[in-house]
Design goal:
The chain is α+β, with helices and mostly antiparallel strands and 116 residues long. Helices cover 23% and strands 22% of the residues.
Amino acid sequence: MDGDAHGPSASSAPVTLSLPSLPKSVLELLVANIEGLHLATGVHVYGLGVIAEKNALHGIAGQCPGYVLVGDNGTHGFLVSLSDDLSVYSSELGALVPPFFQFVASSLREWVDSQG
């Protein structure tokens, strides 16, 4: 039996994190800024290395399917709708459910550009 009463042992298989298929425009921006972006307004746009982890941490797939968390400013998360419109929404990190989302931009590129 692997592990002990407190959980699996260190030899357990690593957890695999995944994201839904990202639209080309979102993927292009993330690939062009692989380490992420730290914007003048205090917003951190996640890089490819952490975006899956951040989405898993905040339970995005279960709480708001059809969205991907792409950044935060410490208090608010910023999400892209994976529908055809690809709009960006904001919500408090403790309330990442669609009823609380506020529209902020028509596209990720528009939103990033507006942040300075």
